[in-house]
Amino acid sequence: QVQLVESGGGLVQAGGSLRLSCTASGRTFSSYAIGWFRQAPGKEREFVAAISRSSSSTYYADSVKGRFTISRDNAKNTVYLQTNSLKPEDTAVYYCAARPTVVVSGTPRGYDYWGKGTQVTVSS
Questions:
Q1: What end-to-end distance do the CA atoms of the chain give, in Å?
Q2: DSSP state, 62?
Q3: I need a labelling partner for 23 at 20 to 30 A (CA). Which of 37, 44, 82, 114 fits?
Q4: In the chain, where do the E strands start and end?
Q5: Tell me: the pLDDT tens digits for 17-26?
Q6: Mean pLDDT of 78-92
Q7: Residue 73 and residue 66: Cα distance in Å, rounded?
Q8: How far is CA 79 from CA 41, 53, 123, 124, in A?
Q9: What is the rounded distance in angstroms from the CA atom of residue 31 to the CA atom of residue 109?
Q10: Which residues contact 121 (CB under 8 A, 6 or more apart)?
Q11: Percent of the chain with pLDDT over 70
């Protein structure tokens, strides 16, 4: 089992940047593929980005491709989401999630463990 804690959210103007972190407990963090999802008020949770256990593969939603970058440091049990050129439509609660498999998933149902989220608000 793994416990996840997100941090790094906040209020930023459009065009700004934030670096979100997802820190995990446990000694087997490198065994988990990690995904970032977001949920805006009144909307379903949506996929943002994912990274494989060894960082060999990364995936992005079309809406963030070229603006967001996912990375991980297994020695620090942490996955990062660098968000650049933020837009008001990026405003949401951002969640990280883990699945103990080689293959990442783009759907929330594919993940077993979730953090509580961090709020990102982008003002226009």
A1: 40
A2: T
A3: 44
A4: 4-7, 10-13, 18-24, 33-39, 46-51, 58-60, 68-73, 78-83, 92-99, 113-114, 118-123
A5: 999 999 999 7
A6: 98
A7: 21
A8: 25, 10, 25, 28
A9: 18
A10: 9, 10, 11, 12, 91
A11: 100
Which two tokens mark 105?
């998933």
Assign 29 to helix, strand or coil: helix
Predicted pLDDT at 103: 83
- pLDDT digits 0-9 by tens, 31-48: 999 999 999 999 999 999
| Dist. CA 109–CA 22, nearest whole Å | 19
**105 pLDDT higher than 90:** no
Phi, psi of 14, deg, nearest 5:
-55, 135
Are the beta carbons of 104 and 111 closer than 8 angstroms? no
The helix (H) or strand (E) run that includes residue 36 is strand 33-39
CA–CA dist 16, 32 (Å, integer): 30
Q: Give residue 38's Cα distance to chain centre.
A: 8
